[in-house]
């Protein structure tokens, strides 16, 4: 096994409960934590905007069941960027092809405003703190949770195989254990995130992208089990410059 000892991590994260089981077995946000929550069921992608409308900005938690598409993700993005949506339960949702799309909860042109020339002003990353992803998702797309400094916890499905480039960069995510079927972690996937402690990557992992674990101040060790075949760029996944 290979061991890496990076020295950088920007944020600390706290694990918080985002749901409790009701008597009927339905996952609901804890009443003591969330006041305004709703459950919505879709029969096809694109229905969430009509169901929620502007009300999405006053909800602090949301449970969505059924097939979802990019327009539905835009609705949820607006809920946490312009409103107060802090918890999102998608355990009973479905995404086409089993992929959470690229930029699922990141909108560059809304979160970075041009000031002049090539200079931009960062407007923040929203307030979403907890998300539960459904079984059946095999890939988290590029920049899906990019620059989400509020995001503390994400329940990753056991079916997950790919975490793509910059998926959790600059988030406050804390992950204690990766799914056992994970095969690839993309470039800069967790750069400047809040991963901490002693992290062990699964033996199923075959490829790690360049700088996937860069600048993690509180990550004390990174253990890679036998089976890894590719380190993209030929460099350590914690490398901070071209010499490493």
Give the SSE layout:
Blueprint: E1 2-4, E2 20-21, E3 27-28, E4 37-41, H1 48-52, E5 61-68, H2 70-81, E6 87-95, E7 99-100, H3 108-111, E8 112-116, E9 119-122, E10 130-132, E11 139-140, E12 153-155, E13 162-163, E14 184-185, E15 197-201, E16 207-208, E17 219-224, E18 230-231
Parallel strand pairs: 4-5, 5-6, 6-10, 7-11, 10-12, 11-13, 13-14, 14-16, 15-17, 16-18
Antiparallel strand pairs: 1-17, 2-3, 8-9
Report on this structure.
The chain has helices spanning 48-52, 70-81, 108-111; strands spanning 2-4, 20-21, 27-28, 37-41, 61-68, 87-95, 99-100, 112-116, 119-122, 130-132, 139-140, 153-155, 162-163, 184-185, 197-201, 207-208, 219-224, 230-231. The chain has 244 residues and is mostly beta strands. The strands form five sheets. Strands 7-11-13-14-16-18 form a six-stranded parallel sheet, with no helix packed on it. It has a five-stranded parallel sheet with strand order 4-5-6-10-12. Strand 5, helix 2 (70-81) and strand 6 form a beta-alpha-beta unit. The radius of gyration is 18 Å and the shape is globular.
């Amino acid at each position: 096994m290979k061991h890496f000892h990076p020295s950088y991590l920007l944020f600390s994260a706290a694990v918080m409960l985002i749901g409790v089981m009701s008597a009927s077995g339905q996952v609901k946000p804890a009443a003591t934590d969330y006041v305004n929550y709703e459950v919505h069921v879709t029969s096809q992608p694109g229905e969430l905007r009509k169901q929620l409308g502007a009300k999405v900005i006053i909800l602090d938690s949301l449970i969505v069941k059924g097939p979802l598409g990019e327009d539905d993700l835009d609705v949820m993005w607006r809920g946490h960027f312009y409103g107060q949506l802090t918890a999102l339960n998608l355990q009973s949702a479905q995404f086409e092809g089993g992929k959470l799309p690229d930029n699922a909860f990141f909108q560059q042109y809304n979160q970075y405003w041009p000031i002049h020339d090539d200079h931009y002003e960062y407007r923040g990353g929203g307030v979403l703190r907890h998300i539960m992803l459904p079984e059946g998702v095999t890939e988290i797309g590029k920049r899906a949770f990019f620059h989400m400094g509020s995001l503390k916890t994400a329940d990753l499905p056991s079916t997950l195989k790919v975490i793509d480039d910059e998926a959790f960069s600059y988030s406050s995510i804390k992950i204690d254990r990766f799914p056992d079927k994970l095969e690839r972690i993309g470039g800069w996937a967790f750069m400047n995130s809040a991963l901490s402690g002693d992290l062990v990557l699964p033996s199923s992992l075959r490829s790690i992208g360049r700088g996937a674990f860069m600048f993690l101040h509180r990550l004390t060790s990174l253990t890679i089990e036998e089976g890894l075949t590719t380190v993209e760029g030929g460099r350590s996944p914690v490398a901070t410059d071209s010499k490493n």
